Amino acid sequence: MVPWTLRREYNLSPPISGEAPKSHSLERKQQEPIVLTKWRHSTYVLDISDKPSEKCGVLNVTKITEHGKKVRKNWASTWTVLQGSSLLFAKGQGSGTSWFGGNQSKPEFTVDLRGGSVEWASKEKSSKKHVIELKTRVGTELLIQSEIDSVINDWFRALSETINTHAWESDEAIEEDMPESPGSEKHDKEKDPRDSKKNRVVKNSSMESSEQKKTRVKLKKFLTRRPTLQAVRDKGYIKDQVFGCSLTALCQREGTSVPNFVKMCIEHVENTGLNVDGLYRVSGNLAVIQKLRFAVNHDEKVNLDDSKWEDIHVTTGALKMLFRELPEPLFTYASFNDFVEAIKNSDYKQRVQSIKDLIKQLPKPNQETMKVLFKHLKRVIDHGEVNRMTTQSVAIVFGPTLLRPEIETGNMAVHMVYQNQIVELILLEYENIFGR
Q1: From edge to edge, which strands make up the β-sheet containing 5-7?
Q2: Which of 62, 76, 84, 83 is CA-nearest to residue 134?
């Protein structure tokens, strides 16, 4: 059966120049139709109301990679709209009644956030302050920046929430990106050549006239009555996944104290990649990382020695993504402020002891996973003369990934300093904290 797709068109309206924006929501003019295409080669229309945009504003944006290939930075002030799982960019806000209507301000490009990731950019990516690094599943990476601290914090929170909200859709999106099997392509070539375009048009018209009304009713019922994600999971149609699962639940399901995928990645890196320059600092191809994530989530037998995962940065990227997507970070939300207060202590010995005591209070899976991970990172640092990864550079990479507050405040830059210092101290005092 040929899949059908949904296409929705939006009329988005920016604030008119010189006027303060009253709201970021869309102006609802009239109901726009949903067009269903490729349903047995026919087209049907369902009328439902548009949804308002979630966020919009002017940001500084540049691409750094496109489809996995590096591109030259070209910062531009861009009108940005977050709509559903899409991020739309235009050079100007335009005028009149629509943000991207008419010929005034059409989107310059659009980013699909499904299966993407967002994090604060390191200084190596940009010397600017308040920079977000956004990666898509197709290998495009963007830097998004604002000089206003509160504005960029709001955008980071909105993008993170959107990616997490649509995380369950990302596997379906990856399946859409995958090429069709050779068998289906061969089948298409073997179709009767006499089935001309004219014949197909006549066939489509007859189908529409006889089945359109019935199909519209059935599809409308399906869209309004489809079960929730939780209901489908409760019935066992959807298995619990690895990425996005809580650490305690994952270890309990696998019967281990450290997730199997974490141990698999660490073993592969230590066997093949300790001498690779920029290990963990260099980003892997996000499209390939997402395919690895998809395979792990669907219980496929993954062999990291396989040629399709040959880039070691894909393995390190997947490991970082696993920790980033934990519902609660490795250093739990409840302990974040305690760790920050401990690192502020002016007495070094007392500082180390406080950090050690706080780690012992974490859940057992968190402690064991932390012990295995930091032991591995120590080995990465031991090869620093070759891979150029120092204790400080490893701490910069893993600080925000393993340790973050539940609610971001205006102290984002200060928190980032403490996050890095905490990870750096644990690396320096590993044997004192965890033992040999």
Answers
A1: 5-7, 33-39, 42-47
A2: 62
Query: Quick count: other Cβ atoms within 10 Å of Cβ 222?
Result: 9
Grouping H, G, I as helix, E, B as strand and the rest as coil, residue 140 is: coil
Q: With b meaning 16 or more CB within 10 Å and e meaning fewer, what string describes 169-198? A: ebbebbeeeeeeeeeeeeeeeeeeeeeeee
Q: What does the chain come to in residues?
A: 436
Q: How many CB atoms lie within 10 A of CB 411?
A: 14
CB 47, CB 77: distance < 8 Å: no
Confidence of residue 324 (pLDDT cuts 50, 70, 90): very high
pLDDT per residue as tens digits for the range 170-198 = 555 555 555 444 444 444 445 455 555 55
Q: Residue 240 pairs with which residues in a beta bridge?
A: none
Answer yes or no: are the C-beta atoms of 429 and 435 closer than 8 Å.
Answer: no
Tokens of 206: 């007859």
Q: Residue 263 and residue 252: Cα distance in Å, rounded?
A: 15
User: In the block, which residue shows the tokens 């269903």?
Assistant: 36
C-alpha–C-alpha distance, residues 424 and 289, integer Å:
27
Distances 198 to 40, 83, 202, 205 between C-alpha atoms, Å: 16, 39, 6, 11
Residues 6+ apart with CB under 8 A from 259: 242, 247, 250, 251, 322, 369
Cα–Cα distance measured from residue 66 to residue 242, given in angstroms and rounded to the nearest whole number? 28
Residue 395 one-letter amino acid: A
Mapping DSSP onto H, E and C, the string for 149-167 reads HHHHHHHHHHHHHHHHHCH
- Residue 423 amino acid letter: V
**77's tokens:** 């002030």
Q: What residues have CB less than 8 Å from 137, skipping those under 6 apart?
A: 112, 114, 115, 116, 170, 173, 174, 177, 286, 287, 290
Q: How many CA atoms lie within 13 A of 80 on its CB side?
A: 23
CA nearest to 139, candidates 108, 120, 159, 112: 112
Phi (first) and psi of residue 234, to 5 degrees: -60, -30
- The CA–CA distances, whole Å, from 158 to 20, 79, 329, 345, 408 equal 21, 16, 18, 34, 11
The predicted model scores a pTM of: 0.50
Instruction: State the pairing for strand pair 5-7/86-90.
Output: unpaired
For 13-29, the pLDDT digits (tens) are: 444 444 444 444 344 44
Residues with Cβ within 8 Å of residue 120, at least 6 apart in sequence: 131, 132, 133, 156, 400, 412, 416
